[in-house]
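Hi R.,

Here's the chain you asked about this morning:
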Amino acid sequence: MMLINFHQPKKRLTAASLHFGISFSIFVLIILLLANSWYPGVYFDTEGGLQGIKIVAGIDVVLGPLLTLIVFNPQKSVRELTVDIGIIASIQIIALLWGAYTLHNQRPVAVVFWNNSFLTVPAQALDEQGYALEKLGGLGDVYPPLVYVASPHQPC
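And here is the predicted structure, written out as tokens:
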């Protein structure tokens, strides 16, 4: 099995470019989801949305097309090409779903004022405490909701 065919680079570049176009389209959709729903406003910069975009870009926009560029060989049979591209796409989709799952669990779902500080609370923290995230909708019209937590009284 020949991995790189240096004799027909135009076809390899075409295949990699097509894969890049598809991957970039998915990447743009994920950016819109992150910036508008999961990490709205300043939370995109302060709570990890930008780091998430870097991870997604590496997986979605770089990894898949680069693997296609390396593996694609127009001299292979259609069956071999289908298997190769299918494996690449499967790896890429699994990695992308894992990344999206992680970003979804780390999205800020509440801003808590406690002990003279504002702290963001990620979804996973409330989920681990058994708190239903749906209850947060009743705390106000702002997302993520602003919550005040009183410090427990200390005995004198």
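One quick note: The radius of gyration is 22 Å.

Cheers,
M.
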